[in-house]
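User: For a reading group we're discussing how well predicted structures match intuition. Take Alpha/beta hydrolase. Before you show the prediction, I'll give you the sequence so everyone sees exactly what went in.
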Amino acid sequence: MSSSAPALVLVHGAWGGGWVWRRVVAPLREAGFEVHTVTLTGDGERAHLRRSDIDLHTHIADVMGLVEMEELENVVLVGHSYGGMVITGAAVELQQRHPGLLSGLVYVDAMFPRPGDGWGVSHSPEVAAARLAAAAENDNALPAPNAESGFALSPEDAAWLNRRHVPHPFGMYRQPLDYDAALIESVPRLFIDCTDPAYPTIEPVRRLVREEPGWQVVEIATGHFPMVTTPVELVARMRGFAETLPV
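Assistant: Thanks. Here is the predicted 3D structure of Alpha/beta hydrolase, as structure tokens, for the group to look at:
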């Protein structure tokens, strides 16, 4: 990659931390990217900061703080799972506060909210009720699922996730993200669809990105954590997208 390669800001999903990207950070840097990982307030090594009133705007501020303090330019925001909510909000703020700084958005099997949508808007009533009940019993934090089931991980990788996952702040579950859709529509967007097995709560987004204009969609035949299971292919997909962006 040239010296004009984008600065990648990687944002994890629920229960995670910047650590989840460990297997892709070095290859991306070797390819010439500047790479930063964000750990959202209340997650990962910042779990000691968890409190019941953390919301989506707290996590958007985490990303904005990194971009501004590092004085990044030519930024591509990358979000996994719940992190798609965060990068959408951060993208809007970047467009409003620093026009021209944002070059692209990558959604790795991630949520994408239309204006006014919240994280749980597309979840079935059964899933929403179960998550709300579990969070209510844990000081408004959602306990992590057992990674051994539903994610097509090896026993070693499942154990790796289980050791590190922490309860995720839950104040944003039904918090709407209101924004001007035009601010997002003008930005190149890639959706990486992990299909084997497909994570059920992402299904509405899978349909949306194939129906609405302006999206590139690629598939990886793996589970919901491609940065763990197929890091080489994930890096290749991200590099391929970056090469399509205007310099």
